[in-house]
Amino acid sequence: MTGFLEWSGEYELGVPAMDADHRDLLAMCNHFLFLASSHTPNDQLADCLDRLVLRTRAHFLAEERMLDRHGYPALVVHKAEHERLIREAEALSGALRRGNDGKSLEDVVAETSDFLRSWLLEHIRSNDRPYKPFLRSLN
After folding, report:
1. What is the pLDDT of residues 115-138, one digit of tens each?
2. Phi, psi (degrees; rounded to nearest 5) at 38
3. Three-class secondary structure of residue 73 per DSSP
């Protein structure tokens, strides 16, 4: 397993509430990664992931409301990506609780860890950064 997630200035959107949420989500991802590397029981890992999903849902809702308020033209696509990420995280949580189609629980933990390492920062890069210039153009 590779290391933890690190925040850098490239992820700053210039929207204080969104940047704070992203840092909070990154810390929660790192907490899961720490628990996974500490061989925490899978039900506890699933609980941790469920808390992360709840926090992520709240963040996505706040972000979508902000973008809707400002008339962001790519909101439908942005929301669809949010929904896809939530579905994937929930499927991983379920797999942690019950096992997954012949995969070992170790494999599910590794898959979940890999997902968390990539989804947040990649989502910020690919899906959130495009709204940064749009919001700046409104000022």
Report:
1. 888 888 888 999 999 999 998 888
2. -95, 10
3. coil
